[in-house]
Design a protein that fits this description.
This protein has 662 residues and is mainly alpha-helical. The protein is 61% helix and 4% strand. It has 25 helices and eight strands. The protein has a four-stranded mixed beta sheet with strand order 3-4-6-5. The chain has a two-stranded antiparallel ribbon with strand order 1-2. A hairpin with a 7-residue loop joins strand 5 and strand 6 (148-152). Helix 1 (3-40) runs antiparallel to helix 24 (612-626) and helix 8 (217-267) packs antiparallel against helix 9.
Length: 662
């Protein structure tokens, strides 16, 4: 099963979650109504209950209860609309400065950046929970654009680099497979139920205070009744929370097994994640957390937030630790090791002066992955043969993150010059990277662009732009896109006025030659999508046939990219459209005038509102189109990745793999 299908499963589970949430609301409404009816029968010292049905009580009770739950959930959902950073801060996380010189934090950032390059997505912001000594981690956010990775201090202190990579790969699996958004939705919905219990607690405190200061018998009796109502409401809220935990357990357990398996697939190193799980078992604190929000966000974490008891096992959001270890390491003897600090003298844990690591422990070298062709303009870095990539390998690259892509991400990150990494990690440097990539190759146009740039920006950014442009001229598109993904977290930190200036300069450079080329369009879409906070659009299209014209525009554009010969364009179009026509109407090739950037942009916005499986079919059709000539060029790979990113399903770089599509 590929990550498009996992995303579809997560989307469907969101519907199931809402169904269970509605059932929980109905149960809470019925319980509170029953309490209200029983209390209404109490008159002084006598009790009279004429009927269990009372419309005068039911309507205000039902409306009030539903309103309170929806207001509580709505408040939490609105609070979480700020993305994963909101959750990370509530959990006590501290954002790690990308320029940190702390050894453990530098190692963590390197691993996250490598994995992001491999996955073809912007680098998530990284948070450390400094006060947590257990081994745990989480991924939070609504989309890859606002995702964050958080780890405890114990995670980066006790885990070796391979073990840390296994944990980070596990969390990236939650991002790629759509679990992260489902987890955020769970927090929002279940908070409304918890809110009922919180109201019960407030009622109890209010009643206790009222009884303490009341001087009349009647006042004391009212306070007692109010206290009993508070106890009942709190109990009902916690009963609802109990069923909420059951929902979380049902949603989370199998997805933890999946994320463990995905981590092994990504890293090709089962000892990494298995070692991390074994260390959790051998550590006194295990994966427990002290933060008050631990219970609320328990389903988001790598391991159980609380030390498990026999009673709590049925409600646990994670499978038993020994079962998880056995799945990834069947040879495990059942013994947990004594946890000590890792040996940083080994090559796998070295951190070089530029923020990379020493080369003698490279995963790419350890695996012996087949990465035969050097990237143009970037000696020493290899990628799958663009010209000899098979269709099956292209589909595999689009739908699964595999070991060769992780090796590619490691190689790219380790091979980046020190000054480039320093640039993407500073506000002025990140802007300079984007400007340098956009400068024209034509000497006259570039001279005019530089003249305007010298007046529009500060001297440091201008100087760095000039220096970087010469080095970037012959870079392969995969390296260019990796640099953009590395720069995006820094660009997000720009102030409002500074970002407005950056955006204006970017647009001027794109439009300076009176046309927008393929790379400029790609870069513009990626930056605008990931820096400007946007809510994920609601699903509108569930069949690709509903996007017939939009698919025609995109497939025609890709067919025309590879050749000017009408017969070859027609053959490429037929190859791509055949995959869409398996489930929909025949596509018709568009005229060149119907495939401008405006039409392409409009088509992408509509596909963004489709289901993951519709997106998968479009991207596979795109792959068949550009590979009709048995070749995938850098420009074609670049455009397919831009299309995938624009429709909300970023895909990894195209790298040769021994895996085949079933």
């Amino acid at each position: 099963m590929d990550f498009f299908e996992h995303q579809e499963q997560a989307r469907k589970k969101s519907g199931v979650l809402i169904f269970y949430f509605v059932l929980a609301i109905l149960g809470i409404v019925g319980s509170i109504y029953l309490v209200a009816v029983l209390v209404s029968g109490w008159q002084g010292e006598r009790y009279h209950l004429r009927s269990l049905w009372n419309a005068d009580i039911f309507l205000p009770t039902a409306i009030g209860t539903v309103a309170v739950i929806l207001l509580g959930s709505g408040y939490k959902v609105m609070q979480l609309s700020g993305g994963g950073a909101v959750v990370a801060k509530e959990l006590g996380g501290r954002r790690v400065d990308q320029r940190t010189t702390d050894y453990e934090e530098r190692k963590l950032l390197n691993v996250v950046e490598e994995m992001a390059i491999a996955a073809g997505m912007p680098v998530p912001e990284v948070y450390v929970m400094d006060n947590e000594e257990g081994i745990n981690a989480f991924a939070a956010g609504r989309t890859p654009s606002d995702a964050v990775i958080g780890v405890t201090r114990g995670t980066i202190k006790f885990l070796s680099r391979d073990e840390l990579q296994g944990v980070i790969a596990h969390e990236f699996s939650h991002i790629i497979n759509g679990d992260m958004r489902l987890n955020m939705r769970l927090i929002g919905l279940l908070f409304g139920i918890l809110f009922i219990a919180m109201i019960g607690q407030m009622m109890m405190r209010g009643a206790a205070n009222s009884a303490r200061y009341s001087r009349s018998r009647e006042g004391g009796g009212n306070a007692l009744a109010f206290l009993l109502i508070g106890v009942a409401v709190m109990a009902i809220g916690y009963i609802g929370l109990f069923f909420g935990k059951l929902i979380k357990a049902a949603v989370s357990r199998q997805r933890e097994y999946l994320a463990d398996a995905s981590a092994v697939q990504f890293t090709r190193n089962p000892d990494g994640i298995a070692g991390a799980l074994r260390k959790i078992g051998g550590l006194a604190q295990r994966s427990s957390l002290r933060t008050p929000m631990a219970e609320e966000a328990s389903h988001m974490f790598f391991g159980d937030c609380r030390l498990r008891s026999a009673v709590s096992s049925a409600l646990a959001t994670h499978p038993p630790l020994d079962a998880r270890i056995k799945r990834v390491d069947p040879t495990w003897d059942g013994k947990f090791p004594k946890v000590t600090l890792p040996d940083i003298s080994s090559g796998r844990d070295e951190v070089g002066a530029k923020g990379g690591r020493g080369g003698k422990g490279s995963q790419a070298g350890k695996r012996g992955a087949a990465l035969p062709l050097p990237l143009p303009g970037f000696p020493g870095i290899a990628i799958g043969g663009i010209s000899n990539l098979t269709e099956a390998e292209a589909f595999q690259s689009m739908s699964n993150l595999h070991g060769e892509q992780v090796a590619f991400g490691e190689s790219v990150h380790a091979g980046l010059p020190t000054e480039w990494l320093e640039a993407v990690h500073s506000e002025a440097g990140a802007q300079a990277v984007v400007f340098a990539l956009l400068l024209a190759q034509d000497d006259d146009i570039r001279a005019a662009e530089l003249e305007r740039l010298s007046h529009a920006t500060d001297p440091d950014t201008y100087r760095e732009t000039v220096e970087l442009h010469g080095a970037f001229a012959d870079l392969h598109s995969s390296i260019k896109l990796a640099l953009i993904d590395l720069a995006i977290p820094t660009l997000k930190r720009l102030g409002t006025s500074e970002y407005a200036r950056f955006h204006d300069i970017k647009q001027q450079l794109i439009e300076s030659d009176q046309q927008v080329d393929l790379f400029e369009f790609t870069l513009m879409k990626i930056i605008d999508r990931h820096i400007v906070q946007q809510s994920p659009p609601a699903i509108k299209y569930r069949k690709i046939d509903d996007l017939h014209d939009e698919a025609s525009v995109l497939i025609t554009t890709l067919a025309q990219l590879g050749s000017r010969d009408p017969d070859q364009v027609a053959a490429a179009f037929r190859a791509g459209s055949s995959l869409i026509e398996e489930v929909g109407r025949p596509l018709k090739i568009k005229a060149a005038g119907e495939c401008g950037l405006g039409q392409i942009d409009a088509a992408l916005k509509e596909f963004e509102r489709s289901t993951p499986l519709v997106k998968k079919r479009l991207l596979f059709a795109a792959g068949k189109t550009v590979m009709a000539d048995k070749m995938l060029t850098s420009d074609e790979a670049e455009l397919i990745r831009a299309i995938a990113d624009a429709i909300g399903s970023p895909i990894p770089p195209f790298v040769k793999t021994t895996a085949a599509v079933a």
